[in-house]
Amino acid sequence: MAASPPSPSFDNQTNQSSSSDDEEANARLESDIRERNEFTKRLRKRDDEQTKKKFKSEPVSRDPHRSKLSVEELRKKSRRVYLAARKDKKIHELEEELIDEEYLFKDVKLTKREEENIKFKRYALDLAHEHEKAQQMENIDRYHMPDGKSDETSKNDRYREDNRYSDAKANGQAGQNFEQRKWEDEVIHTALPHFGSLDKEAKSNQPKYDYILDEEIQFVQQLTIPGVNELLQYKEKSKINEHEDENKRKHRSLQESRKTLPIYRFREDLMNAIRDHQVLIIEGETGSGKTTQLTQYLYEEGYCEPDTENVEEEEEEEEEDYDDDDNIKLPNGKKKKEKKMMMIGCTQPRRVAAMSVAARVAEEMNVKLGREVGYAIRFEDCSSERTIIKYMTDGMLLREFLSEPDLASYSVLIVDEAHERTLHTDILFGLVKDIARFRPKLKLLISSATLDAEKFSQFFDDAPIFRIPGRRFPVDIYYTKAPEADYIDAAVVTVLQIHVTQPLGDVLVFLTGQEEIETANEMLLERTRKLGTKIKELIILPIYSTLPSDMQIRIFEPAPPGARKVILATNIAETSLTIDGIHYVIDPGFCKQKTYNARNGMEALTITPISKASANQRAGRAGRVAPGKCFRLYTSWAYQHELDDNSIPEIQRTNLGNVVLLLKSLGINDLVNFDYMDPPPMETLRLAFEQLYALGALNHKVELTKLGRRMAEFPLDPMLSKTILASETYKCSAEILTIVSMLSVNNSIFFRPKDKTLLADTARQGFFTPGGDHLTLLNVYNQWKDTNYSTQWCYENFIQFRSMNRARQVRDQLEALMERVEIEIQSNPADTIGIRKAICSGFFYHTAKFSKNGMYKTVRHQQSVLIHPNSCLFDQIPRYVIYFELVLTTKEYMRQVIEIENEWLRETAPHFYKTKKLDDDNKVKKMPKVLGKIKAELERNYS
DNA sequence: GAGCACTGC
Question: What range(s) does the Helicase ATP-binding domain occupy (predicted)?
Answer without folding.
Answer: 271-469
